[in-house]
Amino acid sequence: MKQSWLYSVSYALQGILEAFNSERNLRIHFSVALLALLAAVICQINYLELALVIFAIGLVIVAELLNTAIEKTIDLFQPTYHPLAKTAKNVAAGAVLVATFTSVMIGILVFGPYLLSMYSEIFM
């Protein structure tokens, strides 16, 4: 029997919620995402800049969710230490780090000019 699209979305949201409740870093990423969106509203960034910020947020959240899925799967099949399990977990964590650095660079490029303009208006 074919599952409805709504069931698939429900399972996906359940997975996001489970990861959110169990992973501290995911909660941090969501908090920073909300701050970035608030900054976007305050700075009144244009649509292209907003698209870049949303892409950066999505990139980090997806990387963190995949990292969590990889870690949980490895823990399921390899509950004791194994060097390949360690490598897989480290590579997945590295992907999150690259996504985060990429997002920070996007944030600097998007918000930097606005922040410099605000700074010069206040202090110059």
| Sheet with most strands | none
How many domains make up the coordinates? Answer: 1
- Count of alpha and pi helical runs: 4
Instruction: State the name of the first-level CATH class.
Output: Mainly Alpha
Number of strands: 0
Average of the residue pLDDT scores? 96
Question: Could you give the distance between the termini?
Answer: 68 Å
Which residue ranges are poorly predicted, with pLDDT under 50 across at least 5 consecutive positions? Answer: none
Structural class: mainly alpha
Order of helices and strands: HHHH
Spatial shape: globular
β-strand percent reads: under 5%
Helical residue percent band: over 70%
CATH topology name, in short, is: Helix Hairpins
CATH architecture: Orthogonal Bundle
Radius of gyration, in Å, reads 18 Å
Structure notes:
This protein is mostly helical and 124 residues long. The protein has a single domain (5-123), classed as Helix Hairpins, CATH 1.10.287.3610. Helix content is 89%, strand content 0%. The chain has helices spanning 5-22, 24-43, 47-77, 83-123.
Question: What's a quick, concise take on this entry?
Answer:
This protein has 124 residues and is mostly helical. The chain has four helices and no strands.
Topology:
Elements: H1 5-22, H2 24-43, H3 47-77, H4 83-123
Helix pairs in contact: 2-3, 2-4, 3-4
Question: What attributes characterize this protein structure?
Answer:
single chain, 4 helices, Helix Hairpins, 124 residues, mainly alpha
